[in-house]
From TrEMBL:
Residues 278-439 form the Acyl-CoA oxidase C-alpha1 domain. GO terms for molecular function: acyl-CoA oxidase activity; FAD binding; fatty acid binding. It comes from the Eukaryota. Its cofactor is FAD. Residues 480-656 form the Acyl-CoA oxidase C-terminal domain. This is Acyl-coenzyme A oxidase. Residues 17-132 form the Acyl-coenzyme A oxidase N-terminal domain. Keywords: FAD, Fatty acid metabolism, Flavoprotein, Lipid metabolism, Oxidoreductase, Peroxisome. It comes from Carya illinoinensis.
Length: 664
């Protein structure tokens, strides 16, 4: 049978130890064991089935999500799962829900922005889920511009309370996940007003619904904002609208780690930077980078397996058509995405470390690495989510017509994923943050302040502005030092050119706006350098397992040379490489594709995804695509009856009309 034989034969061709690659992908043997065990637990639990999700009405879909979330919580308690295991369970349940915001934003916000006493009061309630919280920052009129929020929190010294109010329609909270129908509490961001003076945006813990009957508390108007893109997809989430009509909360419900309001109504600043009010966004952006590798690898796994099963044209001597994965065009679209999935995995791992490091420093009142952490999380969030959203759509096209069927798993994956380009910061707005950071770094060169972290290379500005790429033959592009220098020189030269152009403006802010499209490109170049350099660093570690390191080297080179090829204009116009070297890079890329080809199926097997998680007929582990596609079609509710509902009202009259016309 096609499919079965194809994938079995592909697996037998693998030139590396797949089990060891699974460990590399998971991060450690322990993580692989946990993820493997929990993925199977979820796959074998009938409550977590997801095959009808795209066909349910919004109400049924939402109720089904509530049922799954309640069941997940029950299993977490019954099985006494650790935090790591619970997070894996949530991952494999694979359905956005209010729990994500409760655990992923509400709790981290209290931890990051609450005082010790506030944490002691609220965290036990939140951990036991006696309250359910969300993160209510964005408003109808303001999302990207956090300093433009309109919600007010006015201190009333008479009662020692804040009055939370929505003064305009545009100040209505709009978008927060979990808000619409579930959350009992929210961290609400609003302007702190004391004695008619505006002290800017701060976070406040506000109870929204009664803990007895779930009705909104007095002064609160709350609901869901309506259907979103795609069927199933993010519609499992109750993104909400919220308005306050002079709602009073006790003074101690303002999150007071950054600044405190005293009983007398005095604002006292602590020694932590005010930007910590934005801290939850840094945490979540870091998580989103790791998630990008999951979403992209999932799409790539589906497209790679299907490309080995699907055959078109080119009859071989045995009378069988060619596997579409053997077409060079298919490889040149698919393999860079496979390489990107691995690249994002490793940069995500590094970013997690960076976040832990900055957090430890913050605890010890060392705030020096915060700007770097902000720039890296913002930039990499932007880079990886944009590439992943585009990559999922490319995988759909790589699967031809069948990729457009919901049973391929790709339409829903795309619909669930694409808001990641917008939430936690619009991707362009975030790149502009990186650009500001780069311009600042360039402007400080030569001032005695050495660039640190991911901008260390800028300390070699003179060398990088003048260096010439040493490539003379295609294989030279396999040297990590050659690749790194080309990427560093490109990024350096784009940042310096932007800084020089900016310097021509009398008003820097005006100049920044005028040059923003170029600045974004400079930011992209810097972020791509980070991804490439972290992949190269990963390869410098001890990597056990037969052939594993060789495969990763090939993927690393594919990622770098693919980016070079895609952004050739940058590399050529900045004089980092010559047209001849560009064409050698392209030749090397082709040869790398041939090297990866026999290993492609094994490289996606290394993600260790269950069929339940993939939820794709095209990406099945056994490759049994056609019989299952055929079987799936018959499950569609339209096929419940042979003659469709509406035949007599709408089809029959047309047919009869045609009959009369024909007789005329
Ligand atoms: C069943 C049980 C299961 C149990 C387990 C479950 C586990 C689940 C876990 C799930 C975990 C996580 C998943 C979470 C779910 C994700 C879903 C996502 C939902 C979406 C949520 C949201 O979207 S929330 C809203 C996000 N909003 C934004 O991102 C807004 C973007 N805008 C901004 O950030 C700012 O407005 C902007 C930075 C653009 C501008 O700021 P502004 O103050 O106006 O001006 P600047 O001058 O540019 O900046 C001033 C200085 O501050 C620096 N800076 C800016 N931002 C930061 C920052 N974040 N950190 C540090 N520093 C920052 C900036 O660089 C300037 O510095 P300078 O030195 O003065 O130059
Ligand atoms: C699915 C989903 C879930 C969400 N969950 C939450 C949540 O739980 N809690 C919460 O508080 N929020 C949430 N949000 C809101 C989200 O954070 C915002 O939508 C996001 O920050 C973008 O802001 P915006 O919608 O105001 O976009 P806008 O800023 O209005 O963007 C519109 C366009 O303007 C451009 N633009 C904006 N500013 C600039 C600039 N300075 N320079 C150049 N171009 C610019 C953008 O690039 C974009 O093209 C969610 C959003 C979505 C889609």
């Amino acid at each position: 049978m096609a499919g079965f034989d194809d994938l079995a034969s592909e697996r037998s061709k693998a030139q590396f130890d797949v089990e060891e690659m699974k460990v590399i992908w998971a991060g450690s043997r322990h993580t692989l064991e946990v993820s493997d065990r929990i993925s199977r637990l979820v796959a074998n639990d009938p409550v977590f089935r997801k095959d009808t999700r795209t066909m349910l009405s919004r109400k049924d879909l939402f109720k089904n999500t509530l049922r799954k979330a309640a069941h997940a919580w029950k299993r977490i308690i019954e099985l006494r799962l650790s935090e790591e295991e619970a997070a894996e369970l949530r991952f494999y349940v694979d359905e956005p829900a209010f729990m994500d915001l409760h655990w992923g934003m509400f709790i981290p916000t209290i931890k990051g922005q609450g005082t010790e006493e506030q944490q002691q009061k609220w965290l036990p309630l939140a951990y036991k889920m006696k309250i359910i919280g969300c993160y209510a920052q964005t408003e109808l009129g303001h999302g990207s511009n956090v300093q433009g929020l309109e919600t007010t929190a006015t201190f009333d010294p008479q009662t020692d309370e804040f009055i939370i109010h929505s003064p305009t329609l545009t100040s209505s909270k709009w978008w927060p996940g979990g808000l619409g129908k579930v959350s009992t509490h929210a961290v609400v961001y609003g302007r702190l007003i004391i004695d008619s003076k505006d002290y800017g945006v701060n976070g406040f813990i506000v109870q929204l619904r009664s803990l007895d009957d779930h009705l909104p508390l007095p002064g609160i108007t709350i609901g869901d904002i309506g259907m979103k893109f795609g069927s199933g997809a993010y519609n499992t989430m109750d993104n909400g609208v919220l308005r306050f009509d002079h709602v009073r909360i006790p003074r101690d419900q303002m999150l007071m780690r950054v600044s405190q309001v005293t009983r007398e109504g005095k604002l006292v600043q602590s020694n932590v930077p005010w930007q910590l009010v934005y801290g939850t966004m840094v945490y979540v952006r870091q998580k989103i980078v790791s998630d990008a590798s999951c979403a992209l690898s999932r799409a790539v796994c589906i497209a790679t397996r299907y490309s080995a099963v699907r055959r078109q044209f080119g009859l071989q001597s045995n009378g069988i058509e060619t596997q579409v994965i053997d077409y060079k065009t298919q490889q040149s679209r698919l393999f860079p995405l496979l390489a990107s999935a691995y690249a994002f995995r490793f940069v995500g791992e590094w970013l997690k470390w960076l976040y832990m490091d900055v957090n430890q420093r913050l605890q010890a009142s060392d705030f020096s690495t915060l700007p770097e952490a902000h720039a890296c999380t913002a930039g990499l969030k932007s880079l990886t989510t944009s590439a992943t959203a585009d990559g999922i759509e490319e995988c759909r096209k790589l699967c031809g017509g069948h990729g457009y069927l919901c049973s391929s798993g790709l339409p829903e994956l795309f619909a669930v994923y694409i808001p990641a380009c917008t939430y936690e910061g619009d991707n362009i707005v975030l790149l502009l943050q990186v650009a500001r950071f780069l311009i600042k770094t360039v402007s400080q060169l030569g001032s005695g302040k050495e660039p640190v972290g991911t901008t260390v290379y800028m300390g070699r500005v003179e060398q990088l502005m003048q260096c010439h790429c040493a490539v003379q033959k295609a294989e030279d592009w396999l040297k990590p030092s050659v690749i790194l220098e080309a990427f560093e020189a490109r990024s350096m030269r784009m940042s310096v050119a932007s800084a020089q152009n900016l310097a021509k403006f009398d008003n820097q802010e005006e100049g920044f706006l005028e040059l923003s499209a170029d600045l974004v490109q400079a930011a992209v170049a810097h972020c791509q350098l980070i991804v490439v350099s972290k992949f190269i660093e990963k390869l410098q570690q001890d990597i056990p397992g037969k052939g594993v390191k060789g495969q990763l080297e090939a993927l690393c080179n594919i990622y770098a040379l693919f980016i070079l090829h895609k952004h050739l204009g940058d590399f050529l116009s900045t004089g980092c490489i010559t047209p001849k070297q560009a064409s050698l890079a392209n030749a090397q890329l082709r040869s790398l594709y041939s090297q990866v080809r026999p290993n492609a199926i094994a490289l996606v097997d290394a993600f260790n995804y269950t069929d339940h998680y993939l939820s794709s007929v095209l990406g099945r582990y056994d490759g049994n695509v056609y019989p299952k596609l055929y079987e799936e079609a018959w499950k569609d509710p339209l096929n419940d009856s042979v003659v469709p509902d509406g035949y007599q009202e709408y089809i029959q009259p047309i047919l009869k009309q045609q009959l009369r016309n024909a007789r005329l």
